């Protein structure tokens, strides 16, 4: 290691320690221990250009151990991504570009929002899947225009979380050789030595998953780290896992190798001792970085600009030689033409027969696959039930990266993380699928998608007690309320084919918001009044005979809308005049103007009944104190769907009874 390399590694350490100390909050241990491997990777083995952080063929880097964010921020600062010293001084402060954990879209150069441990590993696998698929779509002999690596760095916590095992198992099966994992192995977690809870042989596990495994015994040995990275790149059949044995809190005499280095500032005296131990000039000074450090980092950064310049020339030649692929590239990387899709009659056409919305969704997917050549998705081993298979599109596998159908296996949590990674990579429009009740497994990664503003689509079928004989373990109750409570996600539960088409239109035209399509197993009738107005979140699907003097409003979603319409007809015969509102998406409805919302749910009409075969949580804002709900108050049961709907009160007679009472009480 040259003197300047040593100084540049130590610059990461002291800057990270100073930032955490000034904030009096943070995690210095990881940056101190991992600084050598991060420096070696970014300086000598990773293609990236700070002058163009969005360069399409850049290598991707994810800090899966996001608590060690000052490691990443220090790299971004030194390499010239625009993070200033003032940004470093404002670590963890309100409105700063250096929040406690890295946030995608907030800080330039951050490839993914990481916080929950292991999530970054799943997203890295997704990025590698995207790279492999795009390479198969676009590369030609002599023109590897998609040719980059995905690197992820994480520690013992990332390896303990089950999501990483799910993701790595699939990565090995797929032979994603452009995926390289750096394991910061220091045998310390918050509670102390990892021996109290984590004694497995991680390398053996990774070998079983199908990874090449490499070990660097001394985490300060840049040459050994570099050799391991190059050996990882040389394996063209397997992803690689590099164990780098480090010491948490390296360089701080009082903290090195101890759990106390993980999640608290070192202390002023210990920061000074760290600098003295590293031979840093003026150890009492803070945020003091010699100019030769910046000069050296800029020399390294210039190599990235040269790499992009070479790629730009290659890509220009490629576009000239393959104009049809250039046109395809542009289509892959352009937003969906929303207006054209809205006006495409064939997209909105449907058969006038009773169909499950999951089946209609399957039809929509196969229409969209021809409209959107970059549609790329699949299911957690449930494609036949979820109806998510793209016909004649091939299966994505080690033998065929050009396939568009993804088979995630029974790995819902990792599937959702991989979906984030695929979308983050760019160039692909992604969907994933499972049964709605298993959205519990998806939720943590869907939350990250919403936080990052990623338009991932979740196809969630078997949406209620209509699941039937599988019983309460497979019948969702609280899941709809759970997803609706999350910011920035459109939860869309359609009532028929037109509304299902609207849900898919919403999903594929969204730019910053994930969409959850909540779909039925059982057949539903096509509704005479359904329309594209569903895109407003709620609309009048069946009007009262006299809207100016209506007695009440029934609000429903999904399979219960037809029940509401049938109930309306029964009540009309009794002289009770009600409007039926279909509300497939509360989120969209709340985005409409006050005038529109008033036109659908007039404040003067206080007799309101919501009908939904799930938990009533969240309906209070629409039915108010004077209204009521027909909903599930407990778990389901195992019986045919028709039996269950009657057992739990989802019948015309029962809904009519509730409406009558509410109308009577409001007179």
Automatic annotation (TrEMBL):
All copies of domain Transketolase-like pyrimidine-binding, residue ranges: 355-526
Annotated positions binding thiamine diphosphate: 67, 115-117, 157, 186, 262, 438
This protein's record includes keyword Mitochondrion: no
Cofactor note: Binds 1 Mg(2+) ion per subunit. Can also utilize other divalent metal cations, such as Ca(2+), Mn(2+) and Co(2+). Binds 1 thiamine pyrophosphate per subunit. During the reaction, the substrate forms a covalent intermediate with the cofactor.
GO molecular function, one term: transketolase activity
Role of this protein: Catalyzes the transfer of a two-carbon ketol group from a ketose donor to an aldose acceptor, via a covalent intermediate with the cofactor thiamine pyrophosphate.
Family under the similarity heading: Belongs to the transketolase family.
Protein name as it appears in the record: Transketolase
């Amino acid at each position: 290691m040259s003197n300047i390399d040593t100084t540049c590694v130590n610059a990461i350490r002291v800057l990270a320690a100073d930032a955490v100390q000034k904030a009096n909050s943070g995690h210095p241990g990881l940056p101190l221990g991992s600084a050598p491997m991060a420096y070696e990777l970014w300086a000598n083995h990773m293609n990236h250009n700070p002058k163009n952080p969005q360069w399409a063929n850049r290598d991707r880097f994810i800090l899966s151990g996001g608590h060690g964010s000052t490691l990443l921020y220090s790299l971004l600062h030194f390499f010239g991504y625009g993070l200033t010293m003032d940004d470093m001084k404002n670590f963890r402060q309100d409105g700063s570009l250096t929040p406690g954990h890295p946030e995608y879209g907030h800080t330039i150069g951050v490839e993914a929002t990481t916080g929950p441990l292991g999530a970054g590993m799943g997203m890295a696998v997704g990025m590698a899947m995207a790279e492999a698929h795009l390479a198969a779509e676009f590369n030609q002999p002599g023109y590897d225009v998609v040719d980059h690596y995905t690197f992820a760095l994480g520690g013992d916590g990332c390896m303990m979380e089950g999501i990483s095992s799910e993701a790595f198992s699939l990565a090995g099966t797929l032979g994603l050789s452009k995926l390289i994992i750096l394991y910061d192995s220091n045998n310390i977690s918050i509670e102390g030595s990892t021996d109290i809870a984590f004694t497995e042989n991680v390398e053996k596990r990774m070998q079983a998953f199908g990874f090449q495994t490499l070990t660097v015994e001394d985490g300060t040995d840049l040459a050994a780290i570099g050799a391991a990275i190059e050996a990882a790149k040389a394996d063209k059949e397997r992803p690689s896992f590099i164990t780098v044995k480090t010491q948490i809190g390296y360089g701080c005499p009082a903290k090195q190798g101890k759990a106390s280095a993980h999640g608290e500032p070192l202390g002023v005296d210990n920061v000074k001792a760290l600098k003295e131990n590293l031979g840093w000039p003026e150890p009492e000074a803070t945020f003091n970085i010699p100019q030769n450090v910046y000069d050296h980092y800029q020399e390294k950064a210039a190599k990235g600009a040269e790499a992009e310049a070479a790629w730009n020339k290659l890509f220009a030649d490629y576009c000239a030689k393959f104009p049809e692929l250039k046109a395809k590239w542009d289509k892959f990387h352009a937003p969906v033409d929303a207006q054209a899709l809205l006006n495409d009659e064939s997209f909105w056409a449907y058969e006038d027969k009773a169909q499950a919305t999951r089946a209609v969704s399957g039809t929509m997917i196969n229409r969209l696959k021809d409209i959107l050549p970059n549609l790329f998705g699949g299911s957690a081993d449930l494609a036949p039930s979820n109806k998510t298979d793209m016909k004649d599109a091939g299966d994505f596998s080690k033998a065929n990266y050009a396939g568009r159908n993804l088979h995630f296996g029974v790995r819902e949590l990792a599937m959702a993380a991989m979906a984030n990674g695929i979308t983050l990579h760019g160039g692909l429009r992604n969907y994933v699928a499972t049964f709605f009740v298993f959205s519990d497994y998806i939720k943590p990664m869907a939350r990250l998608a919403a936080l990052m503003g990623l338009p991932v689509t979740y196809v969630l079928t078997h949406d209620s007690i209509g699941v039937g004989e599988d019983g309460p373990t497979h019948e969702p109750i609280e899941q709809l309320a759970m997803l609706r409570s999350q910011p920035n996600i459109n939860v869309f539960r359609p009532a028929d084919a037109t509304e299902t088409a609207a849900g898919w239109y919403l999903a594929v035209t969204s730019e910053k918001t994930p969409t959850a399509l909540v779909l039925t197993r059982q057949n539903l009738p096509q509704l005479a009044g359904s329309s594209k107005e569903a895109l407003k979140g709620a609309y009048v699907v069946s009007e009262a005979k006299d809207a100016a003097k209506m007695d009440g409003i029934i609000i429903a979603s999904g399979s219960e809308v037809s029940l509401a319409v049938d109930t309306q007809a029964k009540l009309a015969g009794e002289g009770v005049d009600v409007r039926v509102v279909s509300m497939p998406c509360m989120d969209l409805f709340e985005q409409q103007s006050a005038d529109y919302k008033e036109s659908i749910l007039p404040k003067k009409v206080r007799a309101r009944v919501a009908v939904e075969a799930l938990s009533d949580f969240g309906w209070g804002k629409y039915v108010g104190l004077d209204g009521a709900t027909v909903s599930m108050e407990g778990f389901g049961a195992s019986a045919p769907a028709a039996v269950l709907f009657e057992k739990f009160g989802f019948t015309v007679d029962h809904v009519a009874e509730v409406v009558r009472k509410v109308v009577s009480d409001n007179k």
